[in-house]
Amino acid sequence: MCVLFPPDIKSNDFLTYLDQVTSFMDLRPADMFVFVGDFNLNEFDWYQDGSDSDLKPSVLSEDPYTDFTDFCAYNSMFQFNGVRNHNGKVLDLVLSNVNSISVHRSDLPYVRKIVTTGDQHQM
Fold first, then answer.
1. Three-state DSSP class for 123?
2. For each of the chain's 123 residues, which pLDDT tens digit applies?
3. Structure pTM?
């Protein structure tokens, strides 16, 4: 499932989404799930703990961060993306209840740079 939360999402809306996904997952306990996208949880600092392939978040005791860590714990979801941007932040998350996923940085750009000249955009 692809996910994109706007930076200004209300904590209640975020929690409602997590609750609805949890209800859906509870109906399918044997299924495998993968969530990829921008949860806009920019305050988390992701780090590897031991030899596990998943990453753990820094602990933040405020919503929506506590809601997110509770969601992951309840649903046995792990976060696998450790690729950092130029500011050293992990922006997009790869969550799964399957503990055998790996994420790697590509050497190839996904989107060509856009060159702007005046009012025109060129690729």
1. coil
2. 999 999 888 989 999 999 999 999 999 999 999 999 999 888 888 888 777 778 888 877 887 889 999 999 999 999 999 988 888 888 899 999 998 898 988 887 766 666 666 554 444
3. 0.80
Q: Which of 101, 54, 62, 57 is nearest to 78 (CA)?
A: 54
Q: Is 23 strand, coil or helix?
A: helix
Distance CA 49, CA 55 (A): 7
Q: Answer whether 41's CB lies under 8 Å from 66's CB.
A: no
Task: Give 93's strand partners.
Answer: 37
Q: How many CB atoms lie within 10 A of CB 95?
A: 23
